């Protein structure tokens, strides 16, 4: 799977203190995630498509440059039970339990989860270390962010690249239909979530 964050810009260091980087055992970037509690990280189920073993991964919390931040072991991985059942990429969510628990500091704290789904056309912020150019495979050297509007899932499912690929109950669409900036391969979830305080 590609993990891309096309366009956008480097974030201000520690502007998004809940953004977590998932690394392979060899220290390679795999996915992003959101710290939702001192012990748990929300990420995408597709991050574990090839290997579900917790010992194959580690996370970095509170970092800005790739591989920076405090290291934490992954002790358990729980993929949504309906992931990929009956609909490709549906319920693309997974939880990781990490150890030691994360201490809340100026650079690390859990995300502010929204109470309600974001409204259409509201801007949301996607963060991640994914590659920044179409066709590139290398991850970004520092955390990046893009600002994209929420679009209706019905409109999203009518776009040529997404016909038949949008599972309404478990997906959110955000981006531009004309390709201004992009978060590809479901990296909206793997890169982070929409924090409550940043939904205008």
TrEMBL record:
Domain Peptidase S1: 5-185
Pfam families: Trypsin
CDD domains: Tryp_SPc
SUPFAM superfamilies registered for this protein in UniProt: Trypsin-like serine proteases (SSF50494)
Gene Ontology molecular function, alphabetical: serine-type endopeptidase activity
Domain of life where this protein originates: Eukaryota
Keywords: Disulfide bond
Position of the signal peptide: none
InterPro entries recorded: Peptidase_S1_PA, Peptidase_S1_PA_chymotrypsin, Peptidase_S1A, Trypsin_dom, TRYPSIN_HIS
GO BP term, example: proteolysis
Protein name, per record: Peptidase S1 domain-containing protein
């Amino acid at each position: 799977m590609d993990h891309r964050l096309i366009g956008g810009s480097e974030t201000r260091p520690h502007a998004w203190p809940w953004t977590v980087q998932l690394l392979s055992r060899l220290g390679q970037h795999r996915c992003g995630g959101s710290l939702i509690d001192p012990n748990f990280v929300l990420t995408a189920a597709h991050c574990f498509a090839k290997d579900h073993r917790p010992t194959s991964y580690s996370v970095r919390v509170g970092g800005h440059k790739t591989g920076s931040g405090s290291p934490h072991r992954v002790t358990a991985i729980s993929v949504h039970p309906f992931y990929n059942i009956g609909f490709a990429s549906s319920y693309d969510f997974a939880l990781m339990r990490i150890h030691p628990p994360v201490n809340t500091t100026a650079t690390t704290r859990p995300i502010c989860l929204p109470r309600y789904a974001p409204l259409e056309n509201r801007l949301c912020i996607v963060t991640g270390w994914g590659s920044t150019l179409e066709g590139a495979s290398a991850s970004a050297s520092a955390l990046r962010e893009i600002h994209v509007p929420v679009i209706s899932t019905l409109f999203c499912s009518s776009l040529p690249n997404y016909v038949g690929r949008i599972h309404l109950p478990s997906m959110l669409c955000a981006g531009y239909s004309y390709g201004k900036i992009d978060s590809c391969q479901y990296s909206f979830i793997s890169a982070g979530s929409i924090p409550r305080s940043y939904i205008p």
